[in-house]
Amino acid sequence: MSFKEVTELLMILKELECPEMVEVDSFQYSDFPLVAKIFRWLVMRCDPTFQVPLEIEAEQDRVFFLKALVDHMILRYNLVLDPRKLYLADGYAVRELLKIARLLSDASNVWNGPVMSAKGDIFAIDEDVKAKVIAKVMDLQTFRKDHSQVALSSAEMSELLRQEPENHALRISALNMKLDPSKVESSLNESILEIEALAKDYDQKFSNIEFDKANLEAKIKKREEELERMQRRLHTIQKTKPTHLDESDKLENELKDLYGRYSTTFRTFLALEHQVQLAEATMEHREQRFLENNQEIPTGKERKTDSAVIDDGFNEDPVDGSEPEVPFNRARVRQSIVRTEAVDEASVYSHGDVDGSDDEEEPIRGGVSAGNQLAAEPESSDDDF
Fold first, then answer.
1. I need a surface site. Which of 13, 278, 366, 369 has the fewest CB within 10 A?
2. What angle do CA 299, 305, 310 make, to 5 degrees?
3. Under DSSP, is residue 116 helix (H, G, I), strand (E, B) or coil?
4. Cβ-Cβ contacts under 8 Å for 217 (sequence gap 6 or more)
5. Angle at CA 77, nearest 5°, toward 74 and 81?
6. 366: helix, strand or coil
7. Shortest CA distance to 373 belongs to which of 331, 348, 329, 336?
8. Phi then psi for 46, rounded to 5 degrees?
9. Could you give the C-alpha distances from 132 to 117, 137, 299, in angstroms and in order?
10. Are 350 and 280 in contact (CB under 8 A)?
C-alpha cells in the first residue's frame, strides 16, 4: 500500500459519491466493517440486482460474505480479487478495492464527458451512442429473461427424455396392438355421449346465466327507481320548513338571553362579594389599629371624663372598690376610627410635608388626641352607625 493508492481510492469514492466517510488514516489499522461497507457499495454500484449478504459479525459470516462477492465479480465482470487481502482489511485491501473503483470510474468518465482516444484526440460521446447503449441494455434484459426461460425449458425437456424409454415401449405396444372395429365403435359412441352430455351441461349453464342476468337487471332497475323516489323525497323534505323550527329558534334566542343575564348577575355577585370581604378586612384592620393606638393609661381627669359618658350598660361598682368594667361597643369604635382618620388628614394638611419624615408621627398624635376627645362624647348606639 502507498499513500498514492489511498489518495486515488478516496478521490474515486468521492467522485462516485460514496456515502461512507473514508479518511487517509482509515486503512492504517484493520477495520473490516469499513472495508465491507465500501466493498458492498462498489459491488452494488456495479450490479444493483445482486443480493449481498449482510451478516459480517462472526468469522464464518465474513468468509461467506467475501467469497460470495469475489465469486460474483469473477463470474460477472472477469475481475480477479484476492479475498485474503480483503479479509485483512488494512492497506493491502486498498489495492483490491481500487480494481473495482477504477472500473467504475472509467465507465463513469466514458458515459458523462469527453474522453481521450487512442491517438490522443479528445471527443465527446454523442447522444446516438447513448441511445444505442440504452437499447443494448434493454436487449440485455430481454436476453436475461430468455435465458431463464431456456433454463426452464431445458429442465422440462430433460425430464421428458428421462421418461422416453417407458413412453417408447408404450407407443410400440399401442402400434402393434390389433384393433377390434366393434370396440372402436363402442368407444367412439361412449365418447360422443360424454361430449353430448358435456354440451348439454354447458347449455344449461348458459341458460341459467341468461336467467340470472335478467333477474339482476330487473333488481337493478327496481333499485334505481327506489333511489330516484328517495332522492325526490329528500329534495321535498329539504325544501319544506318544519313547523317547530320557528319555535325552536325563538326558544334558543331566549335561552341565549337568559344565559347572558345569568352570567352578568353571577359575575356581579362575585364582584360584590369580593368587595364586601375587602371592606370587612379593612374595617377589622382599622379597629385593630385604633385599639393599638389607644392603649395608653388614662389620667384622673380623663377617667372623670370617661365616667361621664359611660352608658347604662356599664357594670355596677364592685364591692372591693376596683374599676368598673366597660363593655366593648363596636359601633362606637367605628365612629372613633372614622373621626380619627379625619383628624389625621387635618393634621397632615396643617403641618405640611417637606421631607416626608413627619408623615407617620403627626397622624398618630392626632389619633391619640382625637381618641381622648371622643371618649368625652355622648354614647351612640349601634343603630345610629
1. 278
2. 120
3. strand
4. none
5. 40
6. helix
7. 336
8. -75, -45
9. 19, 9, 129
10. no
